[in-house]
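User: I'm preparing a small set of examples for a lab meeting where we compare how different chains pack in three dimensions. I only have the primary sequence for this one, and I'd like the structure in token form so I can line it up with the others. Please keep the answer compact; I'll paste it straight into my notes.
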Amino acid sequence: MTLHPEIAKLLATLPKPDHGTRPDPETMRAAEAEQVPPPEDRLPLHDVTDTTAATPSGHVPVRIYTPVEAEGYDLLVYFHAGAFFLGSLDTHDHVARSLAKETGHKVVSVGYRLAPESPCPAGLRDCYGVVRWAAEHGDELDWDGGNLAVAGDSSGGNFVAAVTAMARDDGFDRITHQVLFYPSLDLDFDVDRYASLRENAEGYGLETAGLQPFNSFYLDSGADPADPLVSPIKRTDLSGLPPALIITAQYDPMRDEGELYGQRLSEAGVDTTVTRYAGANHGFLANFGWIPEFSRAFTETGEFLNR
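Assistant: Understood. Below is the structure token output for the 307-residue chain.
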């Protein structure tokens, strides 16, 4: 299938990326913030509340989305995208709202610390800390003791894989599901490692040449791409991890690493579903989730969590 026409239309309006210049975090964050719709234009839910989660790494901002009024809820902890230096509770508010609506879960979105101001592994520790906090504060969250799922897109998908591994190693067995949307799982960036890095190198929004500069803030902190907590696909033993749903995009340079991770999870005995969305590019849920064939990914997530 060719690239979806709505995506192609938008990409045609964008300037050609300059991969020779390192991105400026403040400029890009300001541009992101300008795109955030006002509250009255957002998907309505029963309740949306900002608070903080007290974790071993500090007080982490979280936004809690309650889809409907009920006596109890399954929980979904969500880690937003942004190449570890972009994204916020606001920029991905619409993703969290859609997840709450389509899954019926109470969603806890994590405002983790960003590189370069807070180097690796600060953001990862925040995410793991909030998952543990959610389990420990189930009464306050009206958790019914059922699902405690984790989900994330792109770099947030990296955190999902790393958090579930940390939990398994710590003997924390409360995480029931993991959902990874077009995840960034290998920060090696050898262009010959995956065919999709060459097949989808240019012209689809996120470009292969941009991966290293975009993630440099995270790696410059001293993070080692060979470390499985930095590149979760490097983990040798994937057994014992929670059931996984991995969503990939046809025209994503990182498509193949997500699909290989799903294959390796399956080989390790993990109940795993991998779905490639035809005509989609990297970030399609955040940028084009209003398109019916792409919003299906939110529905699929709900079906996975509630089956």
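A couple of notes for your slides: The two ends are 29 Å apart (CA to CA). The chain has a mean pLDDT of 97.

User: Perfect, thanks.
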